[in-house]
Write a structure and sequence with these properties.
about 240 residues; alpha/beta; about 45% helix
Length: about 240
């Protein structure tokens, strides 16, 4: 694999704006303006301030991944996907545990909204959280076998349902690509630069290892957002990615 340029590396990075209010989130976004990275809006921020934060980030020129992990009956998810598509996000996710019919309903909701000249976002499915160990998977969630087996099984169902890709840890990327094809998108949290605190993440890798593993997008939060100088922290991560 050829080395990435800084621009190509930035195109792969999604910065998790896990902030409690719009002012803090937008201040951080302003510090990272011009880098070319994505902004990920998750539950904490979206539930605090609502859709307006997505509109503001889009108005500022950012690509937005809306990370709400929809998991409900198919009809509800279809309606949610319509609303999210009309909001103008570039990517959003559902939870693969909701089943194939639910995932297909999300695709239908996108198509219904996009039929009215709205651009269609990328839709992906969450497989297993990067905080999930095999013990938790087996004993608490109730799924037998390895985490990788569970992730790949969900990925196959997501592809069959018409989704563009999945969220998984960087450790499962090779197996997902092998099972679902190289064009099937992998979005990988659990990225920690060398020496960084793992926090509540279990299945993690460094940015360079994630790039070498073939992932399409790296979701990075605290190593950037918790740094004294977020733009400098991002630049260091991008440099590490280009050297992979």
């Amino acid at each position: 694999m050829a080395s990435l340029t800084m621009k190509e590396a930035a195109d792969k990075v999604m910065v998790a704006l896990d902030k409690p209010d719009a002012a803090l989130a937008l201040a951080l976004a302003s510090e990272l303006y011009g880098t070319g990275c994505w902004m990920k809006v998750g539950m904490e921020l979206f539930y605090a301030v609502g859709p307006a934060i997505v509109r503001e980030l889009k108005a500022r020129g950012f690509r937005v991944f809306l990370d709400l992990k929809m998991h409900d009956i198919p009809n509800t998810v279809r309606g949610g996907a319509r609303s999210i598509t009309r909001l103008g996000v570039d990517m959003f996710n559902v939870h693969a545990a909701g089943g194939a019919a639910m995932m297909s309903a999300a695709v239908e909701g996108i198509q219904e909204a996009a039929a009215h000249t709205t651009a269609a976002p990328i839709v992906i499915a969450v497989t297993q959280l990067t905080s999930t160990s095999e013990q938790v998977l087996n004993e608490e969630i109730g799924i037998a076998g390895s985490v990788e087996d569970a992730v790949v099984r969900y990925a196959r169902f997501a592809r069959k349902a018409g989704l563009h890709g999945v969220v998984a840890s960087p450790l499962e990327v090779a197996a997902i690509k092998s099972a679902c094809g190289s064009d099937f998108i992998t979005v990988t949290p659990g990225i920690r630069p060398s020496g960084a605190d793992a926090g509540d993440q279990i299945r993690i890798t460094t940015p360079s290892d994630a790039v070498r593993g073939g992932t399409d997008y790296l979701v990075i939060g605290r190593p950037i957002t918790g740094a004294p100088r977020p733009a400098e922290a991002l630049e260091n991560i991008l440099k590490e990615m280009t050297e992979a």
